[in-house]
Amino acid sequence: MLLAVVTFGVALLGRLKPTIFPAKQFFQLNFISAPFLVLFMIAATASIITMETQYGTIKNVLSQRYSRTQVLISKWLVMLTYSVYLYVMTSVLAN
Q1: What is the CA radius of gyration of the chain?
Q2: Could you tell me the CA-to-CA distances from 31 to 21, 44, 56 in Å, in that order?
Q3: DSSP label at 32?
Q4: Do 10 and 32 form a contact (C-beta atoms < 8 A)?
Q5: Helices (H), the chain
Q6: Interior CA angle at 60 toward 54 and 64, to 5°?
Q7: Quick check: 45 and 83 in contact, CB under 8 A?
Q8: Which of 16, 19, 31, 52 could form a disulfide with 10 if both were Cys (CB 3.0 to 4.6 A apart)?
Q9: How confident is the prediction along the chain (95 residues), in pLDDT tens digits per residue?
Q10: Nearest-angstrom CA–CA distance, 6 and 33
């Protein structure tokens, strides 16, 4: 939600002040959503690890038949899927 607000805000600034904020250049950069995507991904990754440790769910996952490598790879795949989803959504919003 916040990412959509930032994208729309930058697009609005490009529309209102085209001399200061060039809309064509912002459009090519997906209205400056890439740096915000990186921040969201860092926050999401950190919160996944922290919340699993805080609530004790990591113990349940690690005590099952899955190895630590499988758990780590699954977390990477989840974050990859989430990042692709966010990138596609910002691209849709930018167009």
Answers
A1: 18
A2: 10, 22, 39
A3: G
A4: yes
A5: 2-16, 23-28, 34-55, 57-63, 68-94
A6: 155
A7: no
A8: 31
A9: 676 777 777 777 777 777 776 766 666 666 667 777 888 888 888 888 788 888 888 777 778 887 878 888 888 899 999 889 888 887 776 66
A10: 8
